[in-house]
Design a protein that fits this description.
Largest sheet: 2 strands, antiparallel
Distance between the termini: 44 Å
Oligomer: single chain
Number of helices: 7
Shape: globular
Radius of gyration: 17 Å
Number of strands: 2
Low-confidence stretches: none
Length: 186
């Protein structure tokens, strides 16, 4: 297996284990509790990951089905590497500045069912399936558009790293919600 793919698959598997261990036993009240009106609940953090990750799936399907060919812009944009590095930095778990998410990635509702945890587990399994199928592709040469803006392009490898780093970042955010003062005990 490609070493990059192996590392990324392991990261998603680790995230899935953490999500199951940390959040499946929580009540609906706990899943939807917010530390402040302008902060996300655990459910919103998790739904944000599901919504964001699924935005990449059409591009992934096109690549796997052989329908992807880098456009002129994807092939020759001098910014692809820069965008990838910048986004990787911003979604990194170590990045301490709060960033505003694009409206297309916002959680849809503030009260979510506990099943949102299962939705992320399924989504992660889908991501792993895509990654397994990417094993024989040149992850650095394939360029995709950002789901937010067609001006922004980055390599498939950077897209997969963005997904995995972003997931760790928001799982950590959800865990901080659980450790917040006032978090319901039931």
């Amino acid at each position: 297996m490609n070493s990059d793919i192996s590392m990324l698959v392991n990261s998603i598997k680790d995230s899935t284990v953490i999500v199951k261990q940390s959040f499946t036993m929580l009540s609906d009240v706990q899943i939807n509790w917010k530390p402040a009106p302008d902060k996300w609940s655990i459910g919103e953090c998790i739904e944000h990951l599901v919504v964001t990750n699924k935005k990449f799936f059409p591009a992934f399907k096109k690549i796997i089905n052989g329908g992807h060919k880098n456009s002129f812009w994807q092939s020759f944009s001098p910014l692809s590497g820069l965008w990838g590095k910048m986004l990787l930095k911003i979604v990194s778990p170590e990045y301490v500045k709060k960033t505003k998410t694009a409206s297309t990635f916002e959680p849809s509702v503030s009260t979510l069912p506990k099943s949102i945890i299962d939705d992320l587990v399924k989504c992660n399994n889908d991501i792993i399936s895509y990654m397994d199928k990417f094993n024989n592709f040149d992850l650095k040469k394939i360029k995709i558009y950002s789901p937010v803006n067609k001006f922004i392009t980055y390599s498939l490898l950077d897209a997969l790293k963005i997904i995995t780093n972003h997931e760790v970042r928001h799982i950590n955010q959800a865990k901080r919600v659980m450790n917040s003062e006032g978090f319901p005990k039931i």
